[in-house]
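Marked as duplicate of an earlier ticket. Keeping the data here for the record.
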Amino acid sequence: MFSFAIWNEYSWYPRVRDALPDTVKIVSAPVESAFWQPWSYAFPLTKRFIALDLGAAVHSETSPNEFVAPVMVVARWTPTQNLPVAFDCAGGRRADLFRGGQLLGGGQIEGAEWVTPGPEDELLAAACNGG
């Protein structure tokens, strides 16, 4: 039973990742270690990840480089969260819309603010460069 528990922990991320459609891009999948799992210091494991669902993106009718796509926060033992985020690929910026904001088009948003995170931002890169 102990062996199965370890296998289940280590195989969770690959099983979930492989079940995602091709339109979902993994943005971040950090590995972790824990003192109650001493073997994880030698072999860290992934217990959570962030992904972008480009297949569910809704593009602006007025600006083709602007769209809203759900960012999936997936963690072991917790329900998946889908958080809407607006992207402006031409402007190199994004806005978190999960507090009720919306994309109006033409670079205008309501209820949120654009941020310009820079070219190293993995979320913006996944949205605008396809992963």
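See parent ticket for discussion. Strands lie at 24-28, 31-32, 45-46, 48-53, 58-59, 66-75, 81-88, 93-96, 102-105, 108-110.
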